Amino acid sequence: MRRLIVLLTLSVGVAVGYRYGYEGSGYSYAGSYDVDHSVQYTGRSYYIDYKEPRWCYPLRIDNGNVKCHSPRGPNYRSMFGTRCRIFCDRGYRLIGRRQVECTLTRCWSGISRCKEVRCHTLPAFPYGSYVCSKGIRMDSQCEYICEQGYQLEGDRTRMCLENGQWSGSEPLCVDYEPPRIKCPGPREKVAEPGRLTTRVYWDSPRVKDVADKHSAKFVLKGPPPGSEFGKGEHIIRYVAYDRERNKSSCKFTVTVYVRRCPLLKPPVHGYITCTSAGNNYGATCTYTCEGGYERQGTYKRVCLFNRSWSGTTPSCVLIEINVDVNSVAALLDQFYEMQRLLIISSPSASDRYYSLQINTLQEAACGLELRQVTIVELVGNPPRVIGRIKEQQLSSEIVDQLRQIYYLSRMHFNVVLIDKYGTDRERYIQPVTSSELFPFIDNYLLQTEERAILQLKENFCN
Questions:
Q1: What domains does the chain contain, in order, with CATH numbers?
Q2: Which of 160, 186, 286, 357 has its CA 20 to 30 A from that of 374?
Q3: What is this structure's pTM?
Q4: pLDDT tens digits, residue range 93-143?
């Protein structure tokens, strides 16, 4: 009777325990079962006699499989003492024990389950993106793509491996593309009037970098806008740099033309002095006659934009002095801005200083003519007074007025140098030589143009 009660208790317990399974184990089963068995006591231990070979509930693994070995053979997979190895499908990894055993408590010796293999989410990819075939699951292949203007360095693709790690390493997007720069078009200008240069302006170049957007900068290699440019072709270059120091350049030309008129020829017994380069647009040329000659016609001509000269060519004719005048002012007006005067006053023609002075000046006649100096002689005292300019005679009244205006003594030898504006510039009480007279005139009385002409003809009198 006691043995029957024990058998009934064990039968009921097995039926209930199997029906509800082992929650959270990862194992699954279908249906319920009862194991019919008997327990015998041998005096030292119990002996279980199975009528049905199932003791633990059938072992099943989601997303995996089980290989079991039973002491009573392959047909007894859930009996007491059965050992099972657990294997996960590809793409899953085992969580828990790899090998379990059916124990006396009718439970497996451990809990295991198969968890899907997943890699970590890839970080954001600077200056690029990636596309994955299966997200972060195993065998997912992610392809990296760089933004426009960048090039990929490193692994282009990475795969989620069985160990939950990504293959390879994270690549980089590197900016190898230089910025794009566009210079303004070429500039052509004519030199400004009276100058050989002109001021040229232009807009800054347009710079665009696909990668850096607005971070590109440019550097000017050459004169800045608004600079003065001379005749000829000038190359202006800009160099653009991006954040990675990639560079590109562009250039354009600035061409300056100088419009020129035909070269002017000086008139006979005259010369020309011009501003700027002499015959460029806007240049002004002034005509000057040599000593003893006066200009007839226009004294100034301008080079026009159409490459022609204004006015007509003047001529230089021998000066005709009108000595038949009523006043010294009328006489001196004929020399104004044209001739310098060297007035010699002597008490008599026999004065030794006078004779010596005339001889000295006759030897220096060529040099006096180059320096535009006219000799005026005032000799004697009333009633026997003589005045002359070259071969022309002056009246006694004009002689007396000249002596009074320039404070020339009748009783002594005097020499006075008058400039082109009628001003007394230097006096001598003894005969003056060319070596004294010419340096003074050259240094203090000659104009710039006259000095240049003198230098060209300084050997003419030798």
A1: 2-116 (2.10.70.10), 128-174 (2.10.70.10), 183-257 (2.60.40), 270-318 (2.10.70.10), 328-456 (3.40.30.10)
A2: 286
A3: 0.52
A4: 999 999 999 998 889 998 899 999 999 999 999 889 999 999 999 999 999
